[in-house]
Amino acid sequence: MTTEMGFDIIMTDYSESLPNVAVVGLGKIGLTLAAVFANHRYNVFGADINPDVVASVNQGTSHIQNEPGLDELVWTAHHNNTLSATTATAEAVSQADTIIVIVPVLTDEQNQIDYRMIDRAVEDIAMGIKEDALVIFETTLPPGDTENRFGKMIKEISGLRPGQDFNLAYSPERVYSNQIVHDLQHYPKIVGGINEKSLERAANFYKKALGCELIEVSSLGTAEFAKVAECVYRDVNIALANELSMFAEEKDINMAEVISASNSQPYSNIHSPGIGVGGHCIPIYPYFFINKGLSEGLTPLSRKINDSMPDYAITKIEERIGSLSGKNILILGLSYRGNVKEPTKSTALRLIDQLQKKGANTFVNDPSFSDREISQYGVTPLALNNQYCSEIDGVILQAFHDAYNAIDFSHFTKCQLILDGRNKLNQKEINRLGITYEGIGNEGGLTF
Ligand SMILES: NC(=O)c1ccc[n+]([C@@H]2O[C@H](COP(=O)([O-])OP(=O)(O)OC[C@H]3O[C@@H](n4cnc5c(N)ncnc54)[C@H](O)[C@@H]3O)[C@@H](O)[C@H]2O)c1
């Protein structure tokens, strides 16, 4: 049977006993993995510290928005009794032959690695793990951590030795939010093991549980670094696009047109410039590399360039509309990117901070968040049909949600400037309303 999203649900004879898997961390990625495994002849115990998440999974509903195919997979697995959830991680793990770890590692304000969430999860795993189980880390990790931090931690707590008494593997999760179900089936899965047996067990697990192409690599470190390198590449490439865009603006050249022309050469793949890089991947993982002894070079410089983009955008606004003190500025998009509810390291947070320091009255709109959630950031939520839109002096598009395709700016009667941080809005229409449009690298716009 195939779901609406084209995902194969394997028809299962439920009288046979299915192998047990524990998925630790039921967020955007973990819940999707759990639901996919539970529709591919596995019996899945999901574990999460959030009781609301656990309750919704046990009712057969997904707490993740905008993830095509996920609702159906969760519901089908619930209906077939192959997916259940608990806050008791050790207990779930004690029943599993395979344990998947997908709890985030973040960085703090000083860009130091924050292991608190995953350390706690691994402690719980170590308290439940049984001999000969297979533990696969999928969370993006600093190279070396699977073995040297977490393998060690499990050994110290459980007394079981990695590679001998239990199997240890690493397989980075490289999917993209909004298309996770699709990507799990179509992206090749990189897998590394602490030894041959662990690698073989992990590869066999993914062959059956996902049915995707596998890339088996020679070590845990290779698999870990492949994911970090992929994210560093994207961060550096975006920084390059941003740097080129600032130059293009000075020269009154449209950067979008330059990129499209340049990328017609097969070896050129210039990414899109933008108002900032957010989320819990790209702005974080370069530090897994930088913090291991890289004080200078392209990677830290690219982080600096990308982190400076919100300030650059605010300077552009000041140049156009003068001092921001007392001005009403609306940010569109609290999430770090469109159609995802994820505020971690969002560029919106830096914009809010800077606007408030400059004395602007800061408003935020984001259809994924409730007014109460938005207010927690010390700003005023504003619906796009609210009469107060006519008092807004300037708008910054930070994340392009689908809902923003249809914004009617005609009732933003006082608005002088719309800064399109993602180069997505309709410049002609905005100009027709007598509002100045500014993109990133797009100043002057197309002249023909
Ligand atoms: N979201 C993405 O786009 C994406 C893409 C590729 C890879 N990844 C990887 O997946 C990881 C997880 O991402 P996500 O988007 O699913 O995160 P998320 O924030 O949506 O979910 C994390 C979940 O872990 C739970 N959790 C926290 N501490 C726990 C603990 N001690 N024990 C059990 N559960 C705990 C949280 O309650 C939450 O439900 C990321 O850190 C990254 O390495 C994410």
From TrEMBL:
The uppermost taxa in this organism's lineage are: Bacteria, Bacillati, Bacillota, Bacilli, Bacillales
Name the source's superkingdom.
Bacteria
Please give one Gene Ontology molecular function term for this protein.
oxidoreductase activity, acting on the CH-CH group of donors, NAD or NADP as acceptor
Can you name the source organism? Lentibacillus persicus
Q: Where is the UDP-glucose/GDP-mannose dehydrogenase C-terminal domain?
A: 330-427
Similarity field: Belongs to the UDP-glucose/GDP-mannose dehydrogenase family.
Name of the featured protein: Nucleotide sugar dehydrogenase
Q: Where are the transmembrane segments?
A: none
**Keyword field:** NAD, Oxidoreductase
Biological process terms from the Gene Ontology for this record are: polysaccharide biosynthetic process
